[in-house]
Amino acid sequence: TALLPRLQDVRDPFVPDGPAPVLAHLEARDISAWFGDRLVLDRVSLAMPAGKITALIGPSGCGKSTFLRILNRMHELVPSAQLSGQVLLDGDNIYSPEKKLTDARRAIGMVFQKPNPFPAMSIEENVLAGLALTGTKADRDTRESLVESCLTKAGLWNEVKDRLDAPGGGLSGGQQQRLCIARSLAVKPRVLLMDEPCSALDPTSTRVIEETMIELAREVTIVIVTHNMQQAARVSDKCAFFLASQGTPGVIVEHGDTRAMFERPQDPRTDDYVNGRF
Ligand code: ADP
Ligand code: MG
Questions:
Q1: Backbone phi, then psi, for 248, in 5-degree steps?
Q2: How far is the CA of 33 from the centre of ligand 2 (A)?
Q3: Counting runs of H as helices and runs of E as strands, what totals does the chain give?
Q4: Binding site membership of 188 for ligand 1 (Cβ less than 6 Å)
Q5: Which of 37, 143, 146, 200 is deepest in the core (most CB within 10 A)?
Q6: One MF term from GO for this chain (predicted)?
Q7: How confident is the model at residue 10 (pLDDT cuts 50, 70, 90)?
Q8: Distance from the first to the final alpha carbon of the chain
Q9: Pocket test residue of 39, 42, 56, 65 for ligand 1, highest count of atoms within 8 A of CB
Q10: What is the mean pLDDT of residues 206-226?
């Protein structure tokens, strides 16, 4: 397969201003998931290395979103949902009885397919909304600098710095998605989960978000679900191919370095999928 040049390969070298971020390693071990009696993921294990972008690919219904929600304990919001296995954040199981749900959600942020800013709240209030949810206090100066740094990291600052009081709902779709990224960054997550973050966006906004993601991976470990093979090839370092065939639960058929997986898939089903044959 001829691939576009990876955005990853053309980024500038990282010159930190201040202490280098401590990057988080995320690992799922033996994850099985049920909705009621129905097993939808069967003993899935995957390492998502620190400071890398891991792409989860595969057809609809194979459990990618379920897997992603398990990574920050959102799966348990569904009453019928059951789960076994472990999710290790730097070696600590976020499902251990002594771990708090809010700590996991705060350390591991989520961005959804459909941009969901609070439409009536201002851009600034949107960025700070996550702080209120986690009960974090910050004085006025801290809040202002946080708003600027999060919007900058989300690639939105220049477009909105003169209208931080404008409602979030007035932004374009791509800007709203970047606002959601800024909001998720405000609580200083160590991992960012993104469930098809560009599916509702046009190609130009998609490109901007991809570039934003690659910059963010310098300080946050990223896991992205995508249907777009070109996107997986452009942004991700690692890739995992999920499949649930004929009513069987979802499993990972193959995972590894993205480039190797696209150029030399080991499993014929991966080959078929990445080359658009199903
Ligand atoms: P993907 O993101 O790969 O399209 P999902 O994780 O959304 O897959 O879904 C995996 C399977 O779990 C599907 O068969 C889906 O119908 C089922 N499922 C997802 N969410 C729920 C839910 N809240 N209740 C019951 N079944 C669900
Ligand atoms: Mg999904």
A1: -80, 155
A2: 15
A3: 10, 10
A4: no
A5: 146
A6: ATP hydrolysis activity
A7: low
A8: 16
A9: 65
A10: 95
